[in-house]
Each structure stands twice: as C-alpha cells, then as structure tokens.
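Support case: user asked for a sample of complex input and structure output to validate their parser. Sending the pair below.
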Amino acid sequence: MRHFKTLTDRERAIFEAGITLGAIYHQFSGTPVSPETARDVARCIERAAELQPCVERVSVDIDVSERDTENYGGYTEVSGRNLRVRLVTRCGDWEAVARLEYVEELEYPLMWIEEVRRVRD
Amino acid sequence: MRHFKTLTDRERAIFEAGITLGAIYHQFSGTPVSPETARDVARCIERAAELQPCVERVSVDIDVSERDTENYGGYTEVSGRNLRVRLVTRCGDWEAVARLEYVEELEYPLMWIEEVRRVRD
Amino acid sequence: MRHFKTLTDRERAIFEAGITLGAIYHQFSGTPVSPETARDVARCIERAAELQPCVERVSVDIDVSERDTENYGGYTEVSGRNLRVRLVTRCGDWEAVARLEYVEELEYPLMWIEEVRRVRD
Amino acid sequence: MRHFKTLTDRERAIFEAGITLGAIYHQFSGTPVSPETARDVARCIERAAELQPCVERVSVDIDVSERDTENYGGYTEVSGRNLRVRLVTRCGDWEAVARLEYVEELEYPLMWIEEVRRVRD
C-alpha cells in the first residue's frame, strides 16, 4: 500500500508495535479488575490486540493482589502499575518484540522494543 | 455512608445502574472486535462491571457479523451500534434493571431503566 | 419517551447524573496531563459531558502538581486520585447535583448525589 | 537508556509516533462532541499527546457537522470516521511525521508514517 512506502518492513513492524502498545494502554486503563477477574480481562486485551494490523501474538498479565482490593469498592483498576504486555508484530521478513511494563526507577509504565529480528518460514 | 443519605435505596439502585452503563460504554467503545472474539470481550465487560458498587449481574452482547469485518483491518470495534447490555443493581430491598441498546428511530445508543422492583430474600 | 415511563423526573435526574459520572471517569482516565495542560483537559471534559442528556452544567478540576510529573515521562495522567467533578442534571422540575471525588478514608474515587431539589423557572 | 539500545534514533522516532497515534485513538474514541465543542476537544487531544515521549507537536481536527447531531442526543462522538491527526516526533537528529485519517477505500482509520527526515538545529 502506498501509505507504507516510506518505511521498510523492519520499520513498519516497529511502528505497528508502537500503535498496539499505545492502543492497549489507553483503551483498557481504568477497567475495574480483581484477582478473580484479572485473567478474563487479560484474555480480552490479548484477543482485541491480536486483531490489529501486523500483530502476531500478544501476552498480557495484570498483576493484582488481594491487598489492592482493600478499599471501599473491593476492586482496583487496570493501570500502568499493574499491566504487563509482551507482543510480537510481523511485517514481511521482520518481527519486532515489544513490551510494556512499569519500571520502578523511572516511575513510568515504559513501552519499548526488546528485539527486532529477521525471520524466515 | 453519609454520602448516600440524600437517596433512598430505590434511588441509589437507579443511580448506580446509571454509573455502570456510562462506565461500560465509555471504557470499552473503540475496543477491536470480530465475530471470533466478541464473546471474550463481552465476558470481560461483564466481569469488570460486576465489580462496581451495587451491581448484581451483567449480561453483554456484542453484535458483530462477518460483514462488519470486510475492511482493511479485518475487524470492527465495540460501539454504540453493536453493544447491548442488561444489568441488575441492588441496594437494600430494591433492584433496578437497566439496559443499553441502539434504538434505530432515535439513532442513539439509549441507556434506560426497564424496571425497578422491591425484592425480599 | 416510553423508555423512561418507569422513572419519575426526580429519579431520571439521578439516573442521568450517574451515567455522566461513569462516562467521564471511564472516558478520560489515563489521559496524559500536567499542571500546564490540566485546565484544557478539564475544559474538554466539561464541554463533552454537557452534551449528554439532561446535563445542565459540569465543573471539572484536575489536581496535578509539579511533584506528580517527576518521573521519566515528565507528566502524569487523569485518574481517580486527581479528578474532581461536580455536575447538575435536570429533568422536568427536578435537579440533581452529583459529585466525583477521591475519598481518602475509602481509598476510592466516590461518585455520589449531593442534593436533589425541585426547581421552578 | 538501555531499553532503547535495540533501535536507531530514526526507528525510535517511528516507534514513538506509533504509540502516540494508538494512544490518541483509543483514549478519545467515544468522547461526546458537537460542532460547537470540536475545537476544545481537539485542543485537549493535542495538549495531552504532546506530553508523550519524543512528541514535538500534534495537530488534531475533528470533522463533525450539524447533520451528525441530528439524533436523540443532539451530538455525536469522536471516532475513526471524524478524527484526523498529524504529529511530529523527534529522536536525536530524526523526525517522523505520522498521520491518522479515515481512508474511504479501506473503510478504515489508517495510521501511517508520511515522512521520516533528518533534521539539524
């Protein structure tokens, strides 16, 4: 498609990984969650994100404990502090492995590319 | 709790139903979805909403067909046009049954209270 | 409209207030914000929420300080801890005054009805 | 930062552009909007997105007409069909120009990189 002529396959794998991480974070932040429902919410995020262009597979973990639910509502919500994502995009022969995780020393839910690799199959 | 002294139980059941419908709509609108993933997304919405105060049970249906996915992305997204919700809140002896559904003649995803009833158990 | 025959005007003012509070919270949680941009984001929330059915006026405050931006990103995000809303809905002769605010002793961003009153004009 | 050693500056400008487009779309889809409020909502999106890492400037247009508000609610919402974004990221000597716009022939709100360029200042 002409819109992607500016990028190599490697670059587009990186671009699409960025889109999907930004999408996940901003779509699902604020979703009510508890230890009992964390797996169902994570599964929903995985299945939703896997529909996006070039996304091959997505693995989501929402790290909530009973302690997080000791408040008036009895639950917490998906946030940059408890959301962990690892996803793989592919464009042509290139795969990008992207991650989202709260990094304590940065006090920030960082999104980064862990690896970009050539694949053949 | 002093914050709720202004409302009767019946009124609070209605208020909490409103909160949860507004929350569902604005949390999940825009989520990528396809016929294959609609059940998982619906289940996530149900489980998330059931955590909110006074919510007893939530039933969600996302009405997507293959036709909706015939575009570049191959998927569609949760929206006012395909989302249907029925939920029950309870406060004291009162239950409210609330619904969200696209109403064609209004061209609008309407949220309304279908019934408010006294229960005893 | 037949959908609202189950509620009195007073009850519907309460219901619509609930919808709008739930909508605001779940639409805007996660929005990047800093002390410099807080007013623009608050204004956007006010103007968006005032479009919803029966909503008369909305006043939003996002309480962010420089301390909140001392992290890798240099900003924070709209959340239950910094968002304060006061809104008025009206249905027929009835007005409801609703609020959203983080309540420390509950460790929870509470949504409640502060007052319901009859008006005439 | 060690997390970004896998990418060149050029690639990181592309990655961060992807994150910000995905973030904008999924944060603000569903926001109530009318011709009268479109500019305030667009401004909020611009200011929020400009806080994200490596983002230099963001220009947002929400294309809503009176026709879009001829429904029960009297407003419409931000969606892939009316949202247009152009943003510039910078990392080291590299700038990426990214866009989001609904492409009729794709029936899809496409996100793409329009240009990547070396800058010096």
